[in-house]
Amino acid sequence: MAFHLGVTPSVIRKRYNMTGGDIGLLPNNSQACAQFLEQYFHQADVAEFMQLFGSSFGHRSQVDQVVGHQGWGKAGLEASLDVEYIMSTGANISTWVFSNAGRHESQEPFLAWLLLLSNMSSLPWVHSVSYGDDEDSLSLAYLERVNVEFMKAAARGLTILFASGDDGAGCRRMPGGNHTFRPSFPASSPYVTTVGGTSFKNPFLVTAEVTDYISGGGFSNVFPMPDYQAAAVRRFLRSASKLPPSSYYNSSGRAYPDLSALSDNYWVVTNRIPLPWVSGTSASTPVVGGMVALINDRRLQQGLSPLGFLNPVLYRLQEQGHGAAFYDYPSLLQWLQLPPKGLCPMGSTCLLARPTGM
């Protein structure tokens, strides 16, 4: 067990058994973050972050391409966190940032971003997004339209990762005084991979992980449970030692998150200042994104397609007893480097079949 004073790239690499040699090698592989709500990263912050924390692995110190308007005011903590950790985990891989201005229904313009992706002939294989809204704050028509674009992205071979949120299951009081949980979207979409958060059991040692108390999770009130997760969710509902009242959540809805990673006590550089103790699934999501981009790099070296939509194979690995691989990068790499069986890689049409009941 190693002592640490906050999560850095070296702590992440130690926890998940990644070495300095686990870096990208191919020029035709890339990864991306999306930024919304006037959150902007600064190239100078990325360079300083890598100077402070990137000495043990090969890396790039600049984002290669920004699509959209990049503001030059103060850097946003959210945007800095996303970029610095996808670039340090998916080290030496070309990184893009999609900068999205404006609002839709007073929220992030997710559809505009997705339509931009749909109209691009060449774009990164992995997209990490740390933003989300209450599912009930958006119109049903908009939710369904955005979900169509997620289906199209998945069928195209893209991996779209969303943070599960930082409010637990959320809660609201209904008319009449009853309470119900409040799921997050796009985390609740069946066609994205949703990332939750964990903490070290001992906050100052690289030890086993426990659920981060703020990590978002729950069941969609809009999208039915997809077949790929039905067995896992049924098992969870049967075996959980303590569950909330059944009236609080829709047990037949899409359940999330799909997997989790460290999300607590990160170091971030923003506006040239190193800040400790930054937490949230906005940290775990780009970390997972960087790992997926690294696995894509290995697959592309072997002439295989990128991973594409992850969820079917993630749940299949768990069902087959390979859950320990999610804590060990070499094991996960071993399983996901295999020719795709159950994945939905680039060019596949298997994603176009909707989940049961949808």
Distance between the termini: 46 Å
CATH fold type: Rossmann fold
Rounded average pLDDT: 88
Structural class: alpha/beta
β-strand number: 16
N-to-C order of helices and strands:
HEHEHEHEEHEEEEEEEHEEEEHHH
**Assembly state:** single chain
- Which architecture does the CATH hierarchy give at level 2? 3-Layer(aba) Sandwich
Secondary structure: helix percent: 25-40%
Any idea of the CATH class? Answer: Alpha Beta
Q: Please state the CA-atom Rg, rounded to the nearest Å.
A: 19 Å
Give me the number of helical elements: 9
CATH H level: which superfamily? Peptidase S8/S53 domain
* Most strands sheet: 8 strands, mixed
What are the segments in which pLDDT stays under 50 over at least 5 consecutive residues? 339-358
Strand content: 15-25%
Shape call: globular
Number of separate domains: 1
